[in-house]
Amino acid sequence: MQLPISILPGDTRMEYIAEVMAKKGGNVCSSWSDIPESGYLICGIPFTRDGKMVNTSMSDPLSIRSFLGMLNGSHIIIGGNLSKNVISYCTYHGIKYYDVMTSPAFVRKNARLTAEGLLIPLLSNTTFSICDCRVLLAGYGNCGKEIADILKLFTNEIYIYDTNPTAVKAARSSHFKTVSEKELRDRNHSVHQINIIINTSPVNPFHSQVWESFSGSCTVFNIASFALKLPRPLSERVFDCPGIPGKYAPKTAGHIIAKEICNHFKL
Questions:
Q1: Residue 1: per-residue pLDDT
Q2: Which long-range contacts (CB under 8 A, 24 or more apart) does 175-181 make?
């Protein structure tokens, strides 16, 4: 007998996840009391946005601590970017969990959607075409690779910065120009002719002296989940773009998540 499948409401992606999971018997919770005594519980991607509250659109917000206290060893939590505290709690209390962001296949597909969706804010917040972009891309992980591959269809002016030697080697193997921090500090280096900076790094990629070396006419697009604190005048030209797949391709993103869940649990 299949376990109950419950879905916490959230952004538009969750609606499309629910659409797919309804065929498997899934139900959307309208209140916390709708959560059954056992079964799969599909939470948001990410599981939390502030590290304190569960990411959901329910009218009565619930803290992570209170939410976990409602569960038992018969529940299976499914979400994205589960924190160490959540994982520790689940492990200690015998609650099963699955983080979809640990699936390489899902991460690749989600990165592709992020790269495609980035074109929208990029075009909407600049006065030039992508063909005229001169880009510094900070971070050559999954998202960085997909962004670079899309942008190279339009421009050859792409510089890659990453502190991971393996990532730098991979970028060079794909015929991208790479720059070191020393080169970034050199104001005469050609990288300082850029007009776009894209950050995919989970931490601020540059020291303040490096940020100050860029032209104030640059536009910065930050797809990381934290806000970049930059010196002026760059601080006035920063566009935070978290959760791009959910904003610009929610149906595709939701269906990808649902497929990953069904494949993992053989539903």
A1: 64
A2: 176/148, 176/152, 179/136, 181/206, 181/207, 181/210
Cα(30)–Cα(47) distance, integer angstroms: 18
CA 210, CA 129: separation in Å to the nearest integer?
A: 26
Residue 192 near residue 157 (C-beta atoms within 8 A): no
C-beta of residue 43 within 8 angstroms of C-beta of residue 9: no
State residue 166's pLDDT score. 96
Over residues 190-205, the pLDDT tens digits come to: 999 999 999 999 888 9
For 208-236, letters b (16+ CB in 10 Å) and e give eeebebbeeebbbbbbbeeebebeeebee
Longest Cα pair distance anywhere in the chain, in angstroms? 68
pTM of the model: 0.86
Give strand ranges (E) for the chain: 5-7, 27-28, 39-42, 75-79, 96-99, 135-138, 158-161, 177-178, 196-199, 219-222, 238-240
pLDDT at 152: 95
63 φ/ψ angles, rounded to the nearest 5 degrees:
-70, 160
Measured CA to CA, the distance from residue 138 to residue 266 in angstroms comes to 37
Tokens representing 140 are 């050559």
Token look-up 């970017």 returns 81
- In angstroms, the CA 36 to CA 8 distance is 12
